[in-house]
Each structure stands twice: as C-alpha cells, then as structure tokens.
Amino acid sequence: MALRGEPGTRNREVNDRQHQLAALNKETAMVKLAYLLGGLLVLIGLIWVGQGSGYFPYPAESFMIDQSPWIYWGALVAVFGVAVIVMARFKRPLQ
Fold it and tell me: I need a labelling partner for 60 at 20 to 30 A (CA). Which of 10, 37, 49, 88 fits?
C-alpha cells in the first residue's frame, strides 16, 4: 500500500476521483432521462384520458374521442409515468 506522498499515489487518487465523477455524471444523466420519460408518459396519459372522455376532442377526426377504453389506458400510462418519476427521485445521486 502506497503512503501519501509516495510516487504514483497522486496519480491514483486523481484517477479514482475521475472514475467517481464519471459514474456520477452517468447516473445523473440517467435520472434526468427518467424524469423526462416519466413526464412524457404522464402527459400522454392525460391526453388519452381527455380524448377518451371527450373533454379534449382534438384532433377532431381522432378515433379515441368518447371511447371509454382510452380513459383506462390513459390512466394506466399516467400512473406508470408517475411511478417512473418516483423511482427516479429515489435514485437521485448524492451531490
């Protein structure tokens, strides 16, 4: 084991720190991606609920308007999006 101040110790310390920072940056990017994916799933789910219930009849020629199965599918997708966000929140890297 090299003692502090011995040749090569500083290089190993810097190298270890660089690996730690790289892992932290990768984890932070994954958390941000999970937040983005979860947010998009919630938005899509809410749009499907709105179309299925008839409260969001756009585009007018959509086959999903006033079709109750899309209310359930939209709610399921939105709940899944919230679950992704919650899991990402617990995975948040330590700063």
Answer: 37
